[in-house]
User: What shape does this take?
Amino acid sequence: MLAFAATSTSDRSPGLFQVDEAMVDDIAALVAAEDRGMVMNLLVDLHPVDLAVLMERLPEVEARQVFAWLPPELAGDVLAELDAVEREPLLVGISGERLRKLIDELDTDDAVDVLSELPDRRVADVLPKLEDTYDLTALLTYPEQSAGGLMAREFVAVPSSVTAFEATEAVRHRARDIDEIYSVFVLTTDGHLKGVVSLKDLMLSPADMPLEDLMQTDVVSVPTGMDQEEVARIMERYDLVSLPVLDEDGVMAGRITIDDVMRVVRTEAEEDMQLMSGVSGAEQPGDSVLRISRGRMPWLLVGLIGAGLSGTVIGTFEATLEQAVVLAAFIPIVTAMGGNAAVQSAAIAVQGLSSGKLWPGDLMRRMGKEMLVAIVNGILLATLLCLTIFFLQLGDVTRLVLTLGLTMFTVILLATTNGALVPFVLKKMGIDPASAMGPFVTTLNDIIGLTVYFIYATALYL
Amino acid sequence: MLAFAATSTSDRSPGLFQVDEAMVDDIAALVAAEDRGMVMNLLVDLHPVDLAVLMERLPEVEARQVFAWLPPELAGDVLAELDAVEREPLLVGISGERLRKLIDELDTDDAVDVLSELPDRRVADVLPKLEDTYDLTALLTYPEQSAGGLMAREFVAVPSSVTAFEATEAVRHRARDIDEIYSVFVLTTDGHLKGVVSLKDLMLSPADMPLEDLMQTDVVSVPTGMDQEEVARIMERYDLVSLPVLDEDGVMAGRITIDDVMRVVRTEAEEDMQLMSGVSGAEQPGDSVLRISRGRMPWLLVGLIGAGLSGTVIGTFEATLEQAVVLAAFIPIVTAMGGNAAVQSAAIAVQGLSSGKLWPGDLMRRMGKEMLVAIVNGILLATLLCLTIFFLQLGDVTRLVLTLGLTMFTVILLATTNGALVPFVLKKMGIDPASAMGPFVTTLNDIIGLTVYFIYATALYL
Assistant: This one.
């Protein structure tokens, strides 16, 4: 039973519905004792998603054993739910015949995901023996992150001359192959998309009604080459559960369903967050230490070089610093405030550009507004800092208040505006604007902030 | 026509399908000329989503005029697509009668969204006159971000004793009210959920088949109080397009459809990104300067206080600094590397906890792995920094190499491990782990890093 309506959810971890640590341990023990019956008993009611979680959590040997015990249709579904890195160990020792059976159980979009991550030798071996060899060979040619890579070849298509009754028969005919059917696509004889009829409309129409009169003709469709992120945006925007994909000749090549797109949205959000945090290569918690280290090193190096430049700025003004060592104590304030203000305005620009609320032409208006925000915040923070210095009677109060008041205001103004500018520039250059929010913008503003600070300080102290 | 399959998409901005700057200007001019016919001509084929974009981009007066010209069913749909801040100006001058008509066109989930943002006085005025007064009054009692706040009251429910034919008749009966029907819910006489039948299965079954035999009984459902983020996770996890919501007595109270959840996923991702960037209050590009300033100020203050503490650390070691002013030049390196390393490991922990790949019990294993990553990266970066100091013959090379090599290694080790630790702790405390990635973790590591640095420096220099 999957229904957990009655159970309290407050203390359940997200993602942890049926499988918990105790269950993983129990199953590992039962597998070690080779108690197949008991294991299958425990697993029989689990959803493939939960089985996939179990596979990830079990030690490799036990996972492989449980996977081998699963009937092919269930094992296939589990395979489809797993990430590539987690799938690999389960497929190492598996026979060609079993692999063929598992893949044959999958819809073509999932089958092609599994195939595309197998070693070439295994693909060459198994592909010709599959039921959908032709469709899968075609799907394998599309880039994984494109509409073509997301789509499945399973869809119900009829000519516009058929009646509602005949279209229903067509659905019936395909029902065994296709898990989710939300609509019937109406195609011309040469495969061009003419319209779409929802299952609901089909069901509610008189049996002899021609689809010609029933179909909606304003159909949203996408080309096979469209990036998956844009596909997701379109399905979200137009509230679609199923989206036809057309090849370069306008012939319907497949359809994308909403469940695949939900995964895209989640994955892209994770990638953005990693980009913002200076992690590359889509790091997963299960990755090896060296792989993780390699994915993080590039941005750490960028950070090191950037900080080296900041250090050079400080070194250049060593004479000023020797004059008043107290100035060193305010270095973290200058860098932190610049970095924070820049990241804030960058975040809003990145989101606005990505959701379509900001258009590239809005740059000047956006910068103007950010400048106003910066003036308000800059004055407030500069005043606060000056009052603090005054009341704590830090160093040479007059000079320090002047230096830091001016620095704070200037730095916040520059950082807030360049934070909003950089995403627009990156977008124009075809780079993901989210990169603006990684170590790049903070490092840039460290350098700008320190330069401003020491120029003011030198003018006032030397 | 919405089909843009044939047009190239590469140079089209995301979110910008039918409406562009030229069109906004044209329509503004036509409205000023009071050319209603021409405006309606241009707008007649637009999807409500695109009309909503147009409303956002038009100057307020023109937007209000276009909105007044739209027929009620279209105006209602546009209202449902707009965010609350954008909706408000359109509703200012509108008559109670027109408002009633617009809301009556909406599904109850959208209607309740519109109602919940109206001034109380207007709600009291319009609510009793609506078609769905009873349902809407009930929906208004649920928190907006809960399953109850997301759900619509429109769903098709039948007792299990009916046949497939009778269930189809029930769908037909409700078809006019309900836009999207994917399944029929089977309820007991007292409203408890017994099962669900997909439209596809209903369509393909013999007319006299009892639903009892047709329905699936392992139905995923959620309680009205569940947080919308968890609802989204469940629908994504189990590939659902429609999810029943049960009240505290287990009675079916409504259903949530996938389109609402797509919006939740997007909004939550945006909120996380803002949280990471130190922006509070779900800032939108259209917000006023003062509102934006207010939303950003709290984290800037936290940053200022944190940086003040960092400054205090530096001030404490003023004697050491006076001994060797060159040490000041490495302050940015110490703070940048600590911050970057902490944010990297925090990002992975936050994502792992949110996707369910990491469980709370994984803390020690996770910290162990991060420590290994930190040792690898710490040794590499410390070596690189020491070599640079050596080759550039900076300051008193031996002491500087020793100080910075040790500092770099220690700081990376501490930052990487506390970056992974903080999200687990926050989760345990019931705080969104994504907060760990805002200014908090970087500020914390500035303080730790500088303390470590000056302790080593004092030991070696004084």
